[in-house]
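User: Fold this; tokens only.

Assistant: Input:
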Amino acid sequence: MVTGLYASLTGLLIVALAYRVVKLRRGQKIGLGDGGNSTLALANRVHVNLIENAPIVLILMLVAEAGGLPAFYLHCFGTVWIVARLLHAIGLTQGQGGYHFGRFWGVLLTWLVIISLALVNLLHFAQGLGKGL
């Protein structure tokens, strides 16, 4: 399953971003929340943003794959997804929450993947209706 590859890569990215949060917590001796530390708050936000977007992308990919979308297209969507999330994580961190090339393109590409996969699945559904499903 192609989606399994991108779910696994997403999982590794989630753990890497979580590790960054844990490392900051330990270094600053902050057990819960961000303790008013803006660097920790930003690291938390980068991690949470990935977690907010990952489920819908991976569900849409899995549905598209189950619907018969060719592996080439799934790899295209998956690659753009991973690149988008890396760009976003780097951009949000380096931009300190403000505008940054990576943050802008990371969000835009993430939305593009979500919208495209949603449309692919809707098209597949509509074609099924035409066949009497």
